């Protein structure tokens, strides 16, 4: 842990060195589109890999308990933006962030933010399902265990509740102690969702959660997303525009590190304000 | 793209076909070359093992015998004297088993060719004038003898054989008898006696049992007279009184002329010290048979004259020697008991090449025994008659015996490695002069009479001790380093650290061993206390420094490059080392009362050797740590990033992620790394050769040395003559070493496969 500290510090440092105050800037005009009850606010967010800029002055608000989809062609920075929310980009060397993200009005780049606590509040599901090489039970209980919960009955409850939430309980309740590696791809992905929501996050980030799944498994995940938005704020990155149209309430179309248009999903797909967006959603390029 | 186009543009069908054929040919060729290479290597390894195995096979072979000739000798042996009046005392053989000789009651030594029809070559009659000889003593088998006559004279003589090469190639054995001066030991016929000459002064010592049942010790002592001239004084001591009326059945004096052993018909064994030849001192009197009614019928010496073979009327055969077992005082004790002979023990003949001996009984059975392993090796069925002479040939490859019917039998004996069997190689053996059965490796000694001790157990023990302690020192360091480098360090530092550690593995182990033995060992002895303190000091100061760094205001520490604190740590570790060295003297006088060696010895009875396990551990760490580190680091680094990202995304910190997710997922690789490191530690030769002192002791103490299997081969190689027992035992050592490494590697592979399956990554 001790020697791990500097990598996190590097990220703390970025705003200071560039003279950006960590606190939200009142002086700047509100650039992002107002949404009802925003949970996550992104202000002037720029991200650099070395000298290459991957995100350019992103401003957006993400509404509470809604599904927000990021669409856009490959390499447009959807996943990069997503990973800013739980600061998973910290793992990447020579990645530098400027600007501000706040969740519930609190900056996530502040030096007093405990990064592990942030990540508990911002759960994530990855593109490729990544169950730990442990039992199904241990996968779901992992978050609780590292938070220090040892009591078996509590863990049992957590596992059952979240497997049910992830609509996986009926399929696996008789083999909780089997390796998670023995599940099918769709089951593994739902297990990862169960694992992520087991720590009761405020925000659930989903990075192309269905890209490796067949249509039936995809449909199950999509149903699950619709189900879960009653409880969680969900941000989903997807390549699949039908999926975005099906599951999301808001959609952001991104292109080369910039948000081209961000609005309700209905608006983006039926009546986009920009020609560029229309071309993309209608399949003229991509 | 372009080649496709060219193809479509116009390469003809024929040349296309040709190209396909050529590619097929190359493919087939490559496949065959790869197959031949792979199969060849496997074949070579098997062949090497096979040849090593062949070299060790004779060690396990049970001895074989071949009856070469049986001859009727009556007429030849009795020639010149009325039948039945000549008594054969004993028989001897030359080194090449071409001639044998008999000693008879006429005082004649007759040499014959050893073949189906023996031819008389020569007769030598002792020049001492007498009416006839009554008894005989063999001081050394096949060479040194003495006969005693009816008037109480003892005549010593030597039989020697010289090899001459005539006409270039033909080998001729020339025999020779050298007589000594006759000694007047008693005034009456001597029934039984023992004769030796002191190896220092050459002064004779005779102990005789006379017709009137008196036991007399006769010794000549040279003394300087008044005028400086040497005078020989003769002492004759009557020991009869100390026997308590028992009938003597055997008298033996060892080749040092210092110990007299007498056996009696009431089953007793007496031991006198002849250190002062003028007054023998009775040291012990023991019951040698279970029942006093059973007589001791024969006693004799093994090679080296330190072990006494005792045979009794019930056919029991045992070997006795002086040992300190069970007390401070060294005393004679029954050590090995052998399977008995069918009838009363009659004669012994000891091998001149080891601890084997022949024993015959009154009904003509001969058995070959091996004292070291306390085993009976062979039986030679007799013809029901007791033997008049029995001789083990000088090279221990033949047996010649003549029975009371003057039938001569000659056997060829195929027993090249009598001293090795499973027990002597791996078990506890009670060696001559030891206080109890032990595992001992001592392959060579100063004299031919040395008893070789071939227990491989101390060597295997040494190998394991070295490897296990090395692993205890290396595993935590190597794996923690691998976790640190792969999980916590910035990749730019990792790219420097990893190759540097890998270079350590490239250091020739002979250099490490040399440094460890000649530089580190004396140094460590000097700064031993500092070495003990150092790990704690380094860890403590490092943690303290990191704690301080943590508490520094960010505005200060944030100014440094990532990982800068690691370079600060180099300085901190330096300070810790210097501090430990500085504390060496004060701590040693404070805790260990001035000298840690004395302290350890008085407190724990621990001996501190300069070349010890600690030194070896440090040196071996240099070879083992890089191996474990590199492979573990690779295994840890190859755990998919998505797994650790998944863990981090759940709010786990880096330590939790490393310990709960990355480490288990990499466990198969780390396990392999440890086992490969262990294999390396087991097979390591140069360091253990140079830094351990090579004493084959069996002691888990950290502060003394050991001898490893690998080092043993290197140490003993120059001592091992081709085809000898040591030579074959060294091959066996090699097999053992191979077996250990093979087993370890197989075990490692099996277990790591299992781990790999358990923590297998899904291939979604």
Order of helices and strands of chain A: HEEEHEEHEHHHHEHEHEEHH
Q: Give the CATH H-level superfamily of the domain at 457-763 in chain B.
A: MetI-like
Distance between the termini of chain B: 32 Å
Measured by residues with Cβ under 8 Å of the partner chain's Cβ, the largest interface is:
A-B, 47 and 44 residues
> Any idea what the shape of chain A is?
globular
CATH classification, class level of the domain at 457-763 in chain B: Mainly Alpha
Poorly predicted runs of chain B are 1-5
Distance between the termini of chain A: 43 Å
Question: What fold name stands as the CATH topology of the domain at 457-763 in chain B?
Answer: MetI-like fold
| Arrangement of strands in the largest sheet of chain A | 6-7-8-3-9-10
What does this structure look like?
- The complex is a heterodimer of chains A (about 290) and B (about 775).
- Chain A contains eleven helices and ten strands.
- Chain A has helices spanning about 5-15, 80-85, 115-120, 135-145, 150-165, 170, 185-195, 215-230, 240-245, 265-270, 275-280, and strands at about 40-50, 50-65, 65-70, 95-105, 105, 120-125, 205, 235, 250-255, 260-265.
- In chain A, helix 7 (about 185-195) packs parallel to helix 8 (about 215-230).
- Mean pLDDT of chain A is about 85; it is low at about 1-30.
- Chain B is of the alpha+beta class.
- Among the domains of chain B are: about 5-60; about 130-285, Methylamine Dehydrogenase, Chain H (7 Propeller); about 455-764, MetI-like (MetI-like fold, Orthogonal Bundle).
- Chain B has 19 helices and 31 strands.
- In chain B, strand 28 (about 400-405) and strand 29 (about 405-415) form a beta hairpin.
- The interface between A and B is large, with 47 and 44 residues.
């Amino acid at each position: 842990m001790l020697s791990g500290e500097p990598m996190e510090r590097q990220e703390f440092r970025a705003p200071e060195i560039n003279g950006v105050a960590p606190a939200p800037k009142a002086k700047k005009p509100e650039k992002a589109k107002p949404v009802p009850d925003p949970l996550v606010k992104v202000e002037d967010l720029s991200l650099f890999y070395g000298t290459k800029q991957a995100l350019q002055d992103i401003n957006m608000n993400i509404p509470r308990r809604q599904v927000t989809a990021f669409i856009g062609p490959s390499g447009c920075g959807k996943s990069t933006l997503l990973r800013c929310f739980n600061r998973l980009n910290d793992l990447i060397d020579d990645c530098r962030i400027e600007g501000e993200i706040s969740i519930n009005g609190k900056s996530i780049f502040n030096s007093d933010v405990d990064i592990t606590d942030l990540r508990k509040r911002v759960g994530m599901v990855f593109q490729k399902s990544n169950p730990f090489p442990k039992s199904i039970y241990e996968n779901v209980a992992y978050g609780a265990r590292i938070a220090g919960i040892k009591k078996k009955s509590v863990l049992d409850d957590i596992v059952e509740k979240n497997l049910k939430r992830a609509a996986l309980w009926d399929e696996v309740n008789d083999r909780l102690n089997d390796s998670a590696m023995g599940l099918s791809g769709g089951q593994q992905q739902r297990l990862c969702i169960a694992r992520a929501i087991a720590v009761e996050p405020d925000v659930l980030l989903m990075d192309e959660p269905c890209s490796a799944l067949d249509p039936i498994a995809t449909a199950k995940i999509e149903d699950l997303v619709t189900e879960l938005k009653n409880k969680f704020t969900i941000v989903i990155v997807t390549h699949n525009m039908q999926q975005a149209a099906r599951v999301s309430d808001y959609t952001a179309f991104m292109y080369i590190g910039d948000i081209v248009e961000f609005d309700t999903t209905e608006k983006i797909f039926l009546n986009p304000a920009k020609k560029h967006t229309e071309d993309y959603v209608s399949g003229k390029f991509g | 793209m372009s080649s496709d186009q060219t193809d479509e543009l116009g390469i003809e069908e024929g040349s296309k076909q040709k190209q396909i054929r050529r590619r097929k040919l190359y493919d087939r060729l490559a496949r065959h070359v790869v197959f031949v290479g792979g199969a060849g290597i496997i074949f070579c390894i098997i062949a090497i093992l096979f040849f090593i195995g062949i070299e060790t096979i004779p060690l396990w072979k049970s001895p074989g015998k071949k009856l070469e000739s049986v001859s009727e000798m009556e007429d030849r042996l009795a020639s010149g004297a009325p039948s039945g009046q000549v008594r054969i005392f004993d028989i001897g053989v030359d080194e090449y088993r071409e001639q044998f000789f008999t000693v008879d009651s006429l005082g004649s030594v007759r040499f014959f060719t050893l073949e189906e029809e023996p031819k008389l070559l020569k007769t030598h009659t002792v020049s001492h004038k007498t009416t006839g000889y009554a008894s005989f003593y063999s001081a050394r088998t096949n060479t040194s003898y003495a006969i005693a006559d009816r008037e109480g004279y003892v005549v010593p003589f030597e039989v020697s054989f010289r090899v001459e090469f005539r006409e270039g190639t033909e080998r001729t054995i020339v025999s020779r008898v050298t007589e000594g001066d006759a000694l007047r030991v008693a005034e009456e016929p001597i029934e039984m006696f023992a004769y030796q000459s002191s190896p220092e002064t050459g002064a004779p010592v005779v102990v005789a049992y006379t017709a009137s049942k008196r036991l007399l010790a006769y010794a000549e002592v040279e003394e300087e007279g008044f005028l400086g001239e040497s005078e020989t004084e003769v002492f004759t001591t009557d020991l009869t009184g100390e026997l308590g009326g028992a009938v003597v059945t055997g008298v033996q004096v060892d080749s040092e002329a210092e110990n007299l052993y007498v056996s009696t018909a009431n089953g007793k064994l007496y031991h006198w010290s002849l250190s002062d030849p003028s007054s023998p001192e009775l040291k012990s009197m023991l019951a040698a048979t279970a029942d006093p009614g059973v007589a001791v019928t024969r006693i004799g010496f093994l090679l080296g004259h330190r072990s006494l073979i005792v045979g009794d009327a019930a056919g029991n055969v045992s070997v006795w020697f002086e040992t300190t077992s069970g007390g401070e005082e060294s005393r004679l004790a029954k050590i090995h008991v052998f399977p008995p002979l069918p009838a009363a023990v009659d004669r012994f003949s000891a091998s001149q090449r080891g601890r084997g001996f022949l024993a015959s009984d009154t009904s003509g059975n001969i058995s070959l025994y091996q004292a070291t392993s306390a085993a009976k090796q062979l039986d030679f069925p007799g013809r029901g008659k007791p033997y008049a002479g029995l001789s083990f040939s000088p090279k221990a490859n033949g047996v010649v015996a003549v029975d009371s019917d003057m039938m001569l039998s000659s056997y060829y004996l195929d027993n090249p490695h009598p001293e090795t069997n499973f027990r002597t190689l791996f078990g506890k053996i009670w060696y001559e002069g030891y206080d109890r059965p032990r595992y001992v490796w001592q392959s060579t000694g100063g004299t031919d009479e040395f008893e070789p001790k071939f227990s491989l157990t101390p060597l295997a023990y040494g190998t394991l001790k070295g490897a296990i302690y090395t692993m205890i020192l290396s595993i935590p360091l190597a794996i923690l380093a691998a976790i640190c480098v792969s999980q916590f360090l910035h990749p730019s530092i990792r790219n420097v650290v990893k190759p540097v550690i890998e270079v350590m593995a490239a250091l020739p182990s002979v250099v490490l061993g040399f440094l460890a033995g000649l530089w580190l060992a004396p140094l460590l002895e000097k700064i031993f206390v500092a070495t003990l303190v150092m790990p704690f000091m380094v860890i403590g100061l490092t943690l303290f420094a990191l704690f301080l760094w943590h508490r520094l205001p960010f505005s200060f520490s944030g100014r440094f490059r990532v990982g800068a604190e690691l370079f600060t740590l180099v300085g901190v570790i330096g300070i810790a080392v210097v501090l430990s060295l500085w504390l060496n003297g004060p701590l040693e006088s404070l805790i260990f009362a001035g000298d840690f060696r004395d302290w350890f010895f008085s407190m724990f009875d621990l001996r501190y050797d300069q070349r010890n396990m600690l030194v070896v551990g440090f040196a071996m760490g240099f070879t083992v740590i890089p191996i474990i580190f590199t492979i573990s680091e690779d295994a840890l680094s190859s755990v998919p990033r998505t797994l650790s990202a998944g863990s981090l995304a759940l709010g786990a910190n880096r330590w939790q992620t490393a310990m709960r997710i990355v480490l288990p997922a990499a466990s198969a690789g780390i396990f392999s790394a440890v086992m490969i490191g262990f294999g390396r530690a087991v097979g390591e030769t140069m360091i253990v050769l140079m830094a351990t002192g090579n004493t084959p002791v069996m002691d888990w103490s950290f502060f003394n040395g050991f001898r490893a299997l690998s080092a043993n081969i290197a140490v003993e190689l120059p001592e091992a003559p081709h085809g000898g027992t040591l030579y074959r035992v060294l091959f066996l050592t090699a097999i053992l070493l191979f077996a250990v490494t093979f087993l370890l590697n197989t075990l490692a592979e099996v277990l790591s496969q299992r781990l790999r399956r358990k923590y297998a990554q899904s291939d979604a």
